[in-house]
Design brief:
It is built from twelve helices and 22 strands. With 420 residues, it is α+β, with helices and mostly antiparallel strands. It folds into four domains: 94 residues, Rossmann fold, CATH 3.40.50; 68 residues, Dna Ligase, domain 1 (2-Layer Sandwich), CATH 3.30.1490.20; 128 residues, ATP-grasp fold, B domain (D-amino Acid Aminotransferase, Chain A, domain 1, 2-Layer Sandwich); 76 residues, Phosphoribosylglycinamide synthetase, C-terminal domain (Glycinamide Ribonucleotide Synthetase, Chain A, domain 4, Alpha-Beta Complex).
């Protein structure tokens, strides 16, 4: 098969690495890819959300299957465009992608489908939101309803701070148009877990789960980010809990999207809070998580390309996946200034260019090659992923490897996988 991957981050590098191992693969391309992906694929210059260019590449290179990594092109309708052109593509349509691109829409569907989630109010104007927040004395969670790249969620214990934050989101538009609509939710107590499913429109295949660390600083302090690290283990969730999530969350929301006129095909990412009352949904995403993909996909022993191919053909009912029992842990190395004003153009030293080890992987995220040098090109620069017989071993390997990588102002958490 001739395959095109859309995207340029660590998630897309993890997808490309997994797909490159498939015996069914004959050629692999990435638009635009990154220096790490270049070791397994031909890179096509451009932007991931340039849908006309993606269509042109798919036609020119006789692509059999396109895999869309990031959320922006999905929300922009890339799947609709490919389907209208008669080209096979993996991901949800623009309408189905609203599960991620419009949190108010997702909350409405959850209510209709009786999916357990936090109580919430939706506001399209600041004055009513301010009045509501002024009437509360409990902690709240503010969410920009649109796409904010993992940064549009604020957890606030002080209602006065919440009023100021709501003004910054809705009036100052610190998250851009994503903040035109605001969700005010109750704060759920528990620990977070990310659950993934492949969906072919009818059948659902549950993948292994992961936990990520969203806050910038050790001890879950500092602002929310796109993710500063994650881990996945074979025993992260008991089978009984996973089946409960499947029956009470995944199946009902897939059915609800279908009833709303948009059959879901692609990856369904469910962010959950494991509360004393059971799992409750924090958010839905419509693609592999980042950095969760960097710990889940290295644990997948089966052919990812075959699994995705089955999903696009409605053949998931006969799928089976074999998992590596080892634990996987990844640490994100970020640019100085991330998440607000990341500094780019910094030279990266000490980054291995080979991929010969099966227990240590370097997934490029915000990296570019210029004049033969590797430079930072985004907020989250690199994911250092390690596998080990247990979480402690994986953690030791990852942090030992980080000591050899350097760029000015490099920041990362030193407590990934501890106390979780």
């Amino acid at each position: 098969m001739r395959v095109l991957i859309i995207g340029s981050g660590g998630r897309e590098h993890a997808i490309a690495r997994a797909v490159s191992k498939s015996p069914r693969l004959t050629a692999l391309y990435a638009l635009p890819g990154n220096p790490g992906i270049e070791s397994v694929a031909t890179l096509i210059p451009g932007k991931a959300d340039d849908i006309p260019l993606a269509l042109e590449v798919a036609r020119k290179e006789s692509i059999d299957l396109t895999i869309v990594g990031p959320e922006d092109p999905l929300a922009g309708g890339i799947v609709d465009a490919f389907q209208q052109a008669g080209l096979r593509v993996f991901g949800p349509t623009r309408e189905a992608a609203q599960l991620e691109s419009d949190k108010a829409y997702a909350k409405k569907l959850m209510r209709i489908a009786s999916v357990p989630t936090a109580d919430a109010r939706v506001f399209t104007e600041y004055a009513p939101a301010r009045a509501y927040l002024a009437s509360r004395d409990e902690p709240v969670v503010l969410k920009a309803a649109g796409l904010a790249r993992g940064k549009g969620v604020l957890v606030l214990d002080d209602p006065a701070e919440a009023i100021v934050a709501a003004e910054r989101i809705m009036c100052d538009r610190v998250f851009g148009d994503a903040g035109a609509t605001l969700l005010v939710e109750e704060k759920l107590i528990g620990h977070e877990v990310s659950v993934f499913a492949i969906v072919d429109g009818q059948s659902i295949y549950m993948l292994e789960s992961a936990r990520d660390h969203k806050r910038l600083l050790d001890g879950d302090a500092g602002p929310n980010t796109g993710g500063m690290g994650a881990y996945s283990t074979a025993d992260l969730l008991p089978e009984s809990i996973l089946r409960e999530i499947e029956t009470k969350v995944v199946v009902p929301i897939v059915d609800a999207v279908h009833s709303d006129g948009a059959p879901f095909r692609g990856v369904l990412f469910v962010g959950l809070m494991m509360t004393a009352a059971g799992p409750k949904v924090l958010e839905f995403n419509v693609r592999f998580g980042d950095p969760e993909a960097q710990v889940i996909l290295p644990r997948m022993r089966s052919d990812l390309l075959d699994l995705i191919d089955r999903a696009t053909r409605g053949k998931l009912d006969s799928a089976a996946v074999d998992w590596d029992p080892r634990a996987a842990l990844t640490v994100t190395l970020a640019s100085p200034g991330y998440p607000d004003q990341p500094k780019t153009g910094l030279e990266i030293a000490g980054l291995p260019m080979d991929d010969n080890r099966d227990d240590l992987l370097f997934f490029h995220a915000g990296i570019k090659r210029e004049n033969g040098k590797l430079l930072t090109a985004g907020g989250r620069v690199l994911n250092v992923t390690a596998l080990g017989d247990n979480l402690a071993n994986a953690r030791e390997t990852a942090y030992a490897a980080i000591e050899g990588v350097r760029f000015d102002g490099m920041q990362y958490r030193r407590d990934i996988g501890i106390g979780r």
